[in-house]
Amino acid sequence: MTRERVERAAREFTTVFHDLKEQTFATTTWLGVPLVKTPADILVFQQIIAETRPELIVETGAYVGGSALLFASIQELLGIDGRVIAVDIDLSFVNDRVREHPRIELIEGSSTDPSIVSRIRSAARGKRVMVDLDADHRAHHVLEELRTYSSLVSPNCYLVVEDSFFGGRPVRPDAVPGPSEALDAWFAEEPPFESDRWRERYLLTQNPRGYMRRIPDDGEPPPGPQRPENFLTGAFELTGADGDDAAPPAKVDPETIGAELEAAAGEPDREVEALRKTVGNLARGNRQANVTADLDRRRTEITTDNLLREIDTQRELLLERNRQLELERAKVRRIESSLPYRLYGRIRKLPGISALVARRERFRDNAAQARRDQREKVRNERSERFVNHHRGQ
Ligand SMILES: C[S@@+](CC[C@H](N)C(=O)[O-])C[C@H]1O[C@@H](n2cnc3c(N)ncnc32)[C@H](O)[C@@H]1O
User: Does some domain include residue 252?
Assistant: First the structure.
């Protein structure tokens, strides 16, 4: 089996699956409630939950609620004492069975609204957390969600970005910059996450590169299933919005463009082909430049949202520092109340001992003073030698 064959087949099947929407993802249900996931991704979510046993699953973008129900029912089947929080700007489509489910909490509003984020942050405290991002798929929103929600994910648990197959990877080449571009920008910030490509092994996925495992501080992954040596995926990230070629977009170089056009001159087919490639390259270049500029602008803009986020981050840092301080204080208190320490305090106060301690402290002070004097003397000698040298003596 060659890599090319696997990539071609995965690309073709995923595109057909997506284009036959009426008989595929638009009719998929979980326990009778619609959800927008491929059968293979449903299976993968089940495996991730079974392996990592998250106590809290946060989903942005609930829609009808089928995927919140999927997460909750798998938790239930596995006997996980957990729940699901699903956020959507519009909860009016949510199915009644989802509304009534005891494990599911629904929150109406934008996933990046600071008050909603802080509510979810409180619910996540002390829990094993998994996050699934499936709300507004525009790149700036997904990037903001990644920055906001990634810190909630527990080590070795998963952060999932859905629909990174938009933008020609391999479906909807005409899509605006979306989840895949957000992933590019976010990975450039070197977050402690890695894309777990093993989750794409069934070849049909809406989430290429989107299944991300949080790397624990010691960097050690848990022992996973044995992977075959020639493990192959669809590698959808290699194609941008404007092409079918499974290679990263070429850099736009005016000289090469000129040379290609010159070589093709007089041969209409080749000329048209060269022009088409040039236009494709330029469009891709512009598109990438626009995305980067847009993301940069949004990152640095002084907006209420950015300021509130910064305040939130600082508050988290402060809480963490206070926690560390409290731990240190507790250590000091433990030492002070220990028997040897109290005995030592009493012994020090006995008349003979206190004289001995005072003598030892005097001796230590004198030794420190002698070392300081010696350093001062060496410094003076050095500067004297320096001055004499420059006077020519
Ligand atoms: C693709 S659907 C979610 C599908 C669902 N997760 C599933 O698998 O069945 C996207 C949902 O995101 C919601 N949405 C759009 N912008 C949002 C935002 N800023 N915050 C939260 N939800 C948003 C939409 O209302 C829509 O219901």
Answer: yes
